[in-house]
Amino acid sequence: MDVFCTWYGPTQKAFQSLDDTKQKVLAADMLALANRFNGADDGTLVAQGAYLQIFVERR
Question: Within 10 Å of residue 34's Cβ, how many Cβ atoms?
Fold first, then answer.
């Protein structure tokens, strides 16, 4: 959580816009979300990532 709040701009801005109580709520919600999708059971975070790759060919 510290890395996101310190180095990831959108998360950093979100936390900066909240008071201390709401920051704690947001942090708890983000941790719950990460834990929900965590595929690891050894204390680390392993989360699946999905992306769409599109190739366009001009004729």
Answer: 13
